[in-house]
Amino acid sequence: MLVNNEQIIEALWETVYMTGASFLFSIIIGFPLGILLVVTRKGHLLANEPVSKVLNVIINIFRSVPFIILMVAIIPLTRLIVGTSIGTAAAIVPLVFYAGPYIARLIENSLLEVDKGVIEAAQAMGATPGQIIFRFLIPEALSSLVLALTIAIVGLIGASAMAGAIGGGGLGDLAITYGYQRFDTVVMLITVAILVILVQGVQSAGNLLSKKVRRS
């Protein structure tokens, strides 16, 4: 095996860093978009069909582009934002563009699961749209939202591994550079095992948190 423990630990840290940073920025973008997708729907709190249609089209466009193609397509933008198209920081940009719209859809689905009776009851009490969203809609969907965001993190872990294909760093880069290109099966197996453990850990934590916040 051509890699040492320090390289594996560094690659793991880069993957965690990429996933965490891109998840944070993706939530900043995706969460408000998800809420807007719901409340601007016909018959909802802030019904606005033109806005709803535009948002749906934009999100569908980004979601229809495979991540590996998206990474290459926005290289000029990545260079503009971080000054380079190679490395861990550069990989965060396409990860955000990939995960932001995905999270928006997950948020939308979770919020749509809330019983309309909850909204109607809040309106009957004289609550404003903002109060309904943050005091009724989101709290009622919290358990589902936790599971949705867990799915998003798992997806980002997989995407961060793909980022290694164009020098994004992390476990994916380690697997391609030392495993695939140098035909080192051991390195490939180690990286796969670490990724599986990461995913299992995140999913288990998400499931546990979801149960704790679930409303009876």
From TrEMBL:
SUPFAM superfamilies: MetI-like (SSF161098). NCBIfam families: PRK10782.1. The keyword Transport applies. InterPro entries: AA_ABC_Transporter_Permease (IPR051322), MetI-like (IPR000515), MetI-like_sf (IPR035906). This is D-methionine transport system permease protein MetI. Residues 12-204 form the ABC transmembrane type-1 domain. It is found in: Cell membrane. The keyword Isomerase does not apply. GO terms for cellular component: plasma membrane. Belongs to the binding-protein-dependent transport system permease family. CysTW subfamily. Its main location: membrane. Keywords: Cell membrane, Membrane, Transmembrane, Transmembrane helix, Transport. The lineage of its organism: Bacteria, Bacillati, Bacillota, Bacilli, Bacillales. The chain crosses the membrane at residues 20-39, 51-74, 80-100, 145-166, 186-209. It comes from Planococcus massiliensis. It is a multi-pass membrane protein. GO terms for biological process: D-methionine transmembrane transport. Coiled coil: none annotated.
